[in-house]
């Protein structure tokens, strides 16, 4: 049994209403999407803008309610879970969003952002929470000296590291990464991508990695699910998708890669977490 099993997921959004407020127009954002994700595996969901990737990621965590289909996480039905149980399940299923400026509260210090899940989900005292936050900031390569800072004092790359630390607070089994480097400067994308990959290896994390750019996923994804207009076009191991794609659409996505991240710019986490290094 896989860690995550998604079957026949569909979702439409209403896009227009008539003068009485009745829904008259629909976008079929996701149609009949199925896939599995094993523990410790990274599955990239790729496709151009509007393909339905983010909607799939959000439905897996039930941040958006699907119209139909099933989502099973660790053997449990996510879509029928009662609110209390869903809250418990979400300890193990976290999400990292594209823009850390909007995913982190500007009024909360880094320490507050990272420890908030511990306040909600555990009975650790303040000292233990601060210690855990310091450990997590070390793990993501920015160190505990940032604990008292506010988001406005950090760069985009540093903020995304804080968002990653926050996602790790409750020892999740799976993280939905929704375009986690798309909003970052090109110069720090490889660093954050490699941090994610090294954390995955170290902690045995599974990633559902939503990404519009095939150039970015070669270094991190084990398998790829290609989506177009809400449907799955093709799925396969990353090496096979890159070397021998079956579908014209996948070939077109590959042909559109403008500037792949050279493997020489792929750093190890050990160098990222060095206190002497100044990450972006
Ligand atoms: N809340 C919503 N209301 C109406 N339409 C929506 C909503 N969310 C998404 N859509 C539509 O559903 C379709 C799929 O959107 P989605 O964001 O999942 O695509 P995506 O592949 O993640 O694209 P992008 O990379 O641009 O975010 C799009 O046509 C989008 O406009």
UniProtKB/TrEMBL annotation:
User: Membrane-crossing residues?
Assistant: none
Its keywords, alphabetically, are: ATP-binding, Nucleotide-binding, Transport
Q: Name one GO molecular function term.
A: ATP binding
Q: Which domain of life, per UniProt?
A: Bacteria
InterPro entries of this UniProt entry? AAA+_ATPase, ABC_transp_ATP-bind, ABC_transporter-like_ATP-bd, ABC_transporter-like_CS, P-loop_NTPase
The residues covered by the ABC transporter domain are: 4-254
Q: Which family does it belong to?
A: Belongs to the ABC transporter superfamily.
Looking up PANTHER family in the UniProt record yields: D,D-DIPEPTIDE TRANSPORT ATP-BINDING PROTEIN DDPF-RELATED, TRANSPORT ATP-BINDING PROTEIN
Protein name, UniProt field: ATP-binding cassette domain-containing protein
Q: Which organism is it from?
A: Rhodococcus chondri
């Amino acid at each position: 049994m896989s860690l995550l099993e998604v079957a026949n997921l569909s979702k439409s959004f209403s896009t227009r209403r008539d003068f009485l407020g009745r829904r008259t127009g629909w976008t079929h954002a996701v149609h009949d999407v199925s896939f599995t994700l094993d523990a410790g595996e990274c599955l990239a969901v790729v496709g151009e803008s509007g393909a339905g990737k983010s909607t799939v990621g959000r439905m897996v965590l039930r941040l958006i309610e699907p119209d139909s289909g099933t989502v099973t996480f660790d053997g449990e039905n996510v879509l029928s879970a009662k609110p209390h149980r869903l809250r418990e399940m979400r300890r193990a299923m976290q999400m990292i969003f594209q823009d850390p400026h909007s995913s982190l509260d500007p009024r909360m210090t880094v320490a507050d952002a990272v420890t908030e899940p511990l306040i909600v989900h555990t009975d650790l005292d303040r000292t233990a929470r601060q210690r855990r936050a310091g450990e997590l900031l070390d793990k993501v390569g920015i160190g505990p000296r940032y604990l008292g800072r506010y988001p406005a004092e950090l760069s985009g790359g540093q903020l995304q590291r804080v968002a990653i630390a926050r996602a790790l607070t409750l020892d999740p089994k799976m993280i939905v990464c929704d375009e986690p480097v798309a909003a970052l400067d090109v110069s720090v994308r490889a660093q954050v991508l490699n941090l994610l990959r090294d954390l995955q290896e170290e902690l045995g994390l599974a990633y559902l990695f939503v990404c519009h750019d095939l150039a970015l996923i070669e270094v991190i994804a084990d398998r790829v699910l290609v989506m177009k207009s809400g449907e799955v076009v093709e799925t396969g191991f990353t090496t096979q998708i890159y070397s021998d794609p079956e579908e014209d659409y996948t070939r077109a996505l590959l042909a559109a890669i403008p500037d792949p991240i050279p493997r020489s710019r792929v750093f190890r986490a050990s160098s990222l977490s060095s206190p002497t290094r100044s990450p972006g």
